[in-house]
Here is the input.
Amino acid sequence: MRGVFITFEGVEGSGKSTQAERLALHLNQLGIDCLLSREPGGTEIGEQIRKILLDPGNSTMDAHTELFLYLASRNQHVRGKVLPALSQDKVVVLDRFAASSVAYQGGGRGLGEKLVSRLNKLATAGLRPDLTILVDVPVAVGKKRKEQLELDRLERERVEFHERVRNSYLQMAHRAPKRIKLLDGTKPAEALEVEIRELAEEFLRRKGILRR
Ligand code: TMP
Here is the structure.
């Protein structure tokens, strides 16, 4: 497997989806074969699972049911799309991956990070990101950015839930500072874009994928 696997993580309203898109576009412009995808979703089956997960009408969903659905979407995505792309030497950029389940279901829902990590291993076939960009913003800042929008089931959760998610992310970054890069999402999007670009390019140079 010679591809490179980059993931974006963060709380609601962090701006990570915009940044993932901009990085993928930039890498493609540099002539790098780059695949952008997201979780939950990324495959036909995964996108159907996404609808169930985010539907505000599914307010009675049990926390374990929720975890299994995220894992089901991930399993389909990894085996059907991510691993094949990596084996074709592509750079894969994902908007959310396994760390989201650790933070949201493990931390936010309180199912425990150990349990979620064990199940993640099954759903990911042991695949881990080479580089994770954690775009961090205070919960209140992210919430404010979503103010005018219709909120999905997860976004409707209480502030304390999202605080637990953020803390879980910050702990992960603290434990693995080499692999998880913690960036300040309150910066203007353009400044953040440049920072992420530089991080990714340096990483790809070290891997011999970028020459200059
Ligand atoms: P998105 O809005 O960033 O696309 O993500 C959809 C929602 O799903 C978001 O609220 C985070 C949540 N989520 C989890 O709770 N667990 C997971 O494993 C993933 C991938 C997302």
About this structure: Strands lie at 4-9, 34-38, 91-95, 131-136, 180-184.
